[in-house]
Records
---
Amino acid sequence: MYDVIIIGSGPAGYVAAIRASQLGLKIACIEKSSTADGSTQLGGTCLNVGCIPSKALLDSSHRYADAINHFSDHGISVSKPKLDISKMMDRKNKIVTQLTTGISGLFKANKVTQVFGHAKIIDSNHVEVTSSDNSEVLETKNIVIASGSSPINIPVAEINHKDIVDSTGALEFESVPKKLGIIGAGVIGLELGSVWSRLGSEVTVLEALDQFLPMADKRIAKDVYKEFNKQGLNINLGCKVTSAISNNKAVSVTYEHDDNVSEVTFDKLIVAVGRKPNTDNLLDQNCGISVDEKGFIPVNDFCETNVENIWAIGDVVRGPMLAHKASEEGIMVVERIAGKHAEMAYNLVPSVIYTHPEVAWVGQTEEDLTQANIEFKTGSFPFAASGRALASGESTGSIKVIADKKTDTILGVHAFGPSAADIVQQGVVAMEFGASAEDLGLTIFSHPTVSEALHEAAMAVNGQAIHIGNRKK
Ligand code: FAD
Ligand code: AMP
C-alpha cells in the first residue's frame, strides 16, 4: 500500500514525488512514456519535448544569429558561420538525456518507486497500470493526477509528422526549411518561430486573433510585435487558417483575413494552437471524477478534485500551462497530504517568452486593474537608458512596475528586454514579501546590471527615477 501514487513524471509529478518522499511518504510515480529503444522516459513534456529542448535550440540559434548579425558591432569579424544542424540537435538531445536520467537518479536517491505503464484510476484507492507485457492494480491512500497535456490538433491542419508538424516535430527538423509557416502566435509559436528564423527560415506566423499577446501588458505587447517583425517573424494577426494541404513537396495553407481568403505555400508548417489536457483512458467511469467541457480535471485552489484523496496538478488542471506552476502545485499537494497547510500564490506565477529579447511578466496588467476598479500608478524605464544594456548592445525594450495608488504595494511587473525573465523574477520575490515600489526603490542594486532597470522603474512609480526625466505626479 502506497501513501501516494502519482500519475505522470513531468515537472508536476516528479517534483511532487521527491517532495513527498522527503516528507516520509511511501511513493510510486507511474509514467507511460518510453523511448524508441524501450528505455524509461521520465520528465514529461518539459524535459523531453518542451522547456528544455526548446531552450537548447533557442540558445544555439541565438549564438548563430548573433555571430552573423552582431559580432561586427563589437569589432569582431568572422567569416560566415557554418551551420551543423545535426550537431545542434545532438547537443539538445544530450541535454535532454542528461536531465531525464538525472530524474531517474533523484527517484532512486529518494526511494520513489518508478512504475512504467499507462495508469487508470479505478477508485480513490486503486490504480491499474498496463504496460506492453503486464497489467497490475496498485493500492494507495492518495492519488495525484499529473498527466499533463499534449499539442492540440486542428482538423483544418492535420499533423502528418513530415511537413505539417506540432511543437515536438518542430524541435527535430533535419534541415532549415526555406519557407516556414506557423499557425498561432502564442508562446510556443513565437519561440519556435524565433529558432528557425534565426537559422535562416523565412517565417510567417498566422494568428486568428486581432490582438497580439492578449495576456501581456498592452504597451509591451506593441513593442514586442514591432521588434519581432523587425527580426523577421512576419506576424499576421486576424488570419484564421481554414485549411492546410500537403502534396509532399509543399504545404498549401488557406486563411481568412477580414472577408478575404488568401493562400500561401510553405516548405513546413508548425501547428502551435495550444495544448489539451491528457485524460485519455485515465479515469474509470466509476471513479467519480469527470472532466470539464475543455477536458480539464476540475479542482479547487488546493488542487483537490471532487473525490476525497484524489488530487490533480499541472497542465491537466486550470491555470497557465507552465512548468513552475505545475511543480509548485505538486509541492503544495503532497505537503497538504502530509498534514501541512501549504498554499499556492496563484497571483505570483510569472510568465516568460524566451525570445530575444525576452518577454516576462508577473501580477496584474493595467487593463486587469482598470477592469477590477483598482486605482494604480506606474513607473517605466527603457533599457536604452541602462548603462549595462547599452554596453552589451542589448538596449531594446523597457520595464514597467505597477503599484497600488494608495498603498504603493507592487501589483505587477512587466518587461521586454535583456534578461527580462530574471529581472521580473526579482519582482516576484519582492511581491511575495508584499513590497512597495518604495521598498524596491530603496533596495541596492549592483551597478552596472540590467536589473537596475527594475530599480529605476520602481523609483519612477513615485517620480524618483534617476536616469530618466520623471513625469510630474
Ligand atoms: P507533462 O510535462 O506533460 O507531464 C505529464 C506526464 O504524464 C507525461 O510524461 C505523460 O507521458 C504522463 N502521463 C500522461 N497520462 C498518463 C497515464 N495515464 N499514465 C501514466 N503516465 C501518464 N513551460 C515553462 O514553464 N517554461 C518553458 O520554457 C516552457 N517551454 C515549453 C516549450 C514547449 C515547446 C512546450 C510544448 C511546452 C513548454 N512549457 C514551458 C510548458 C511545460 O512543458 C508544461 O507546462 C509542463 O511540462 C507541465 O507539466 P506536467 O507535469 O503537468 O505535465
Ligand atoms: P497558445 O494557446 O498561447 O499556445 O496560442 C495558440 C494560438 O493559436 C492562439 O492565439 C489562437 O488564437 C491561435 N489559433 C488557434 N486556431 C487557429 C487557426 N485556425 N488559425 C490561426 N490561429 C489559430
Note: The two ends are 64 Å apart (CA to CA).
---
Amino acid sequence: MPTPLENWVEEVSRLTTPKEVVWCDGSAREYQKIVEGMLGEGSFVNLNSQTYPNCYLHRSNPNDVARTEGVTFICTRQKSDAGPTNNWMAPEEAKKKAEVFFRGAMKNRTMYVIPYILGPEKSPYSKVGVELTDSAYVVANMRIMSRMGKAAMDRLGSSDDFVPGLHSLGDMDPQHRMILHFPEEKLIWSVGSGYGGNALLGKKCFALRIASWMAHREGWMAEHTLILGLEDPSGKTTYMCAAFPSACGKTNLAMMVSALENEGYRVKTIGDDIAWLHPGKDGILYAINPENGFFGVAPGTNSKTNPNVMTAVHRNTVFTNVAITNDGEPWWEGMDGGVPTNMIDWKGEKWTPSKGNAAHPNSRYTVPATQTPSISKHFEDPEGVPISAIIFGGRRAKVAPLVFEARDWQHGVFVGATMASETTAAATGALGVTRRDPMAMLPFCGYNMADYFQHWLDMGKRVAKPPRIFHVNWFRKGDDGKFLWPGYGENVRVLKWMLERIEGRGAATETPIGNVPAAGALDLKGLNISDETMQKLLNVDPAVWADEHDAIGKFFDKFGSRLPEELHQEHEKLGQRLQRVAVAQK
Ligand code: GTP
Ligand code: SPV
Ligand code: MN
C-alpha cells in the first residue's frame, strides 16, 4: 500500500510532469551533489575557499528579491476566517488559477521531495512538513534551515501527519506568482518565486501561517519572534521572546554581543525569527525554535553590529544577492572596512558607485544555527525554554519611546495589537511607510486577526505566570535624522532593565502608555550619551499619542464586532489616561 506521502508525490508528478523525482535524505553527500549541480549550471558561484570554505553565492531573478505580500493568500472556505488584514481567495478558485501555472511546470526538471522537521528532533512539539520543489536552491536552503531528510522520514513513517507544501519556480513571471495557504487542509502551494519566505515553505508559510492556525485550534502560539537567554552575573538565565517586523532587528538582538559583558550580562541565542510557545505544567510558557538555521539580512551586518554572525558566516553558508569582491569574498553595504573596488554587484554586473547598492538591501545569508558562537546549550531542548518576557517593537522615527512596559497581560496584548512600524526591503512595496503590524504578524497570521487577538487574551489566562510584556524602539531619530540610540550590543542595557522589572527591582515611571525606566534606572555605565538625548528617547508626548490613539481606533474599526471587547476597553482607558495628562499639563 502506498503511503499518504507517496500518493501525494504521485499526484503532484502527474500535474507537474518532472523528468525525475529525487527523495532527499539530508546527507552531506547529497548536499555536495546539489551544490555541484548548481555550480555547474551557474546558479551557485563558489566563494573564496580559503576565507569562506563551503560557501556559495546565489543571485536570484532581479524581479524576485523579497516576499510578495500582494500575491500571498489565505484560502479559507469563509472569507471572514481570513479576516480583513489578509488577502483571501476561495480554495477552489485559487487551485484552479494556480493549477494552470503548475501544469507541466517541472517538464525537463527534477522534482525534489524534501521531508523536514520543524523543531528539535526529540521535541513533542515539533512537526513534520514535506516540500516538493523544482528548485535546487530551495533544497540547499531547507537543509540549513530545517532538520531535513532521514530524521523527518523516520518521524513520519507511513502516517499522514505532515504539512504538504508544493513549490515550483514556474515561469518566473511575476504575473504568474501565487503564494497560497489552505489552512483547513493544512496545505501550501507556491508558484512563480524562488525567494526566501515565498519558496522555503517551512519558514513563513508553515511555521507561521499554517502553524498559527493550528496553534489557535490546539491551544499554543506560533509567533514571529526571536528567542534569547539573558545570563546575569550569578549565571542565571532569563528567557525572552521579541516580536519585531521583518528587518527590524530580531537576528541582531538574538545574537548580540553584550556591551555589559564585563558586568556579567551575556546573551545566548535560541532562535532569530520564529517561536512556537506551549503552556508548561508549571504555568509558564515554553518556547522552541522550529528552525535550524538563520536566514538573516546581510546589509548592516559587521563585526561591531553582529560579531557572532560574522564569525558564523565564514563557512557552510549560502549568500543570496550580495556582491562579490575580486578575491571571491561576499560584500554588502555596511560591512567592515572600506568599499572594495572591482566588485560584481548582486545582479552579476560590474559595480560602479553610480550604480548605487552593490548588494540588494534584502540580500541574505543562510547559516546553520549551531555555527553562531552565541548558540544556547538549550537550543535542542525538547520542552523548550521558559519565557519570562515578550518584547514587541518596531521601527519608528518618532512617537514610540526606547522602551516601556505594559501594565499587565491584557494591556500588553493591546500594545502588541496596536504596534506600528515603517516598512522595509524584506517585502516588495514602498519603503519607510508606517503601518500597523500587530505582533509583527500582519503578513504571517493564517486566520482572522481579531480571533488571533482573542487567542492572545485567552493564552494569558491559560498560564498562571504569563510573561511580562514590553515594547521597544531602537529606531527613534533626532531632528537631524540620525538614530538617537546606539543600538546593537548596547540594547542589552534595556534587557537588563526588563530583567530587573521581572525580578521586582527596576524603577519605573508611569506614563499613559505604560511604564518607562525611571531617571537613572537604565544602566548607562560606559556609554557616552547625554541626559538630553535620554530624555528624547524616553519621552512620551501626550499630543502625539492622542493622534496615535485616533489612528488605533481607525485600525480597530476594520475588525468590526469580531474585535475582542477587552481591546476596546484598553483603547478607551488609554484615551482617558492621555486626557488626564493633557488636562494636568494645561
Ligand atoms: P527578518 O529576518 O527580515 O525577520 O529581520 P530581523 O528582524 O531579524 O532584522 P535584522 O536583525 O536582520 O536587522 C535588520 C536591519 O536592522 C539590519 O540592517 C540591521 O543592521 C538593523 N538593525 C538591527 N538592530 C539594530 C539596532 O539596534 N539599531 C539600529 N539602528 N539598526 C539595527
Ligand atoms: C522576513 O521577511 O520576516 C524574513 C525573511 O525573515 S523571509 O524568509 O523572506 O520571510
Ligand atoms: Mn522574519
Note: The mean pLDDT is 97.
